[in-house]
Amino acid sequence: MFDFGFGEISLILVIALVVLGPERLPKLARTIGNFIGKTRHFVSTVKSELSQQIDSTDLKSLKDTANTLRQNVTDSIQTLEETVRSAHLSALDSLPEQKTPDDFLPKYIAPEKKLKQKSVQTRRQTRTKFPPKPKLRGSRRNK
Residue 134 and residue 141: Cα distance in Å, rounded? Predict the structure, then answer.
């Protein structure tokens, strides 16, 4: 603060002892000590109040900044979600039609239809048709 060395302080004390005398010097030292203590207490109080004010304004500005950042982030997330939804739907629209396992299996055609398609006659088709049997009358009929 004032940069007093030991020599300077001892010179001031010797001059004060000569001027004031040994009776008033302890009272003066006590008064100066009280004044310095009160001044230090006042300065520390002012420093703490200033630091609290600065911290509160910093906190308010940080809080405002955090709120704006939070709002910006939520807006960005919403726009990103909308973009993803629209891209996802357009991607689904451009996909080819999905195949099922049935598409990979051969189509079942009944054997008779296969043979008809190949122009091959089946056993039933080649069998000769006989006329119906005559109905018998008489004793055999009653049996």
Answer: 12
Q: Is the pTM of this model over 0.85?
A: no
Distance separating alpha carbons of residues 42 and 34, to the nearest angstrom: 12
Taking the chain, what is the end-to-end CA distance rounded to the nearest angstrom?
Answer: 147
Q: What tokens were used for 131?
A: 């006329």
Q: Tens of pLDDT along 44-100?
A: 999 999 888 888 888 888 888 888 999 999 999 999 888 887 776 666 667 777 788
- Cβ distance 25 to 16 under 8 Å? yes
- Calpha distance 16→3 (Å, rounded): 19
Based on its alpha-carbon atoms, the radius of gyration of the chain, rounded to whole angstroms, reads: 57
Q: Which distant-in-sequence residues (6+ apart) come within 8 Å of 142 by Cβ?
A: none
Q: Which tens digit of pLDDT belongs to each residue from 119-142?
A: 555 555 566 667 777 776 665 555
Q: Tell me the two tokens of residue 26.
A: 């302890």
Place of tokens 């060395």: 5
